[in-house]
Amino acid sequence: MPPDPASRNPAGRGRATLIAAQLAGLFGTSARVALQGEQAWASAVFAGTRYRFAVEWTPLAKAAKRASLAKALPDHEFDLTGHFVADLVVREQSDDRWLIEILALVDPVRNERDAVSAGPSSARACQGQP
To answer: What integer is the mean pLDDT of 69-77?
Structure first.
């Protein structure tokens, strides 16, 4: 069995766990959410991770509830400190399984604000200067 891709990136695993927990909170007891994989992603301006989740629906999950969730899911605000969800796509949908891709990017505004509030002494310490 290949290693879990999240195990190679502890920080990413934390975000994946947060996203999975928030998805599970939305779906309630009607579904089980599992991380299928993750891949680093970057552009000239942004960096982040693309996560793939499988959602296994219970036989009791109502079709109307699934349809409502599929429609609302792309606009859901995830709580990911220092990151934001830039893209969410339900790649596959069936009565018993969904495959969801989520692109979480580093939030440059939030991280810049955190660096400024930490002050210049922490910036020097991060660079190995006294």
So the answer is: 91
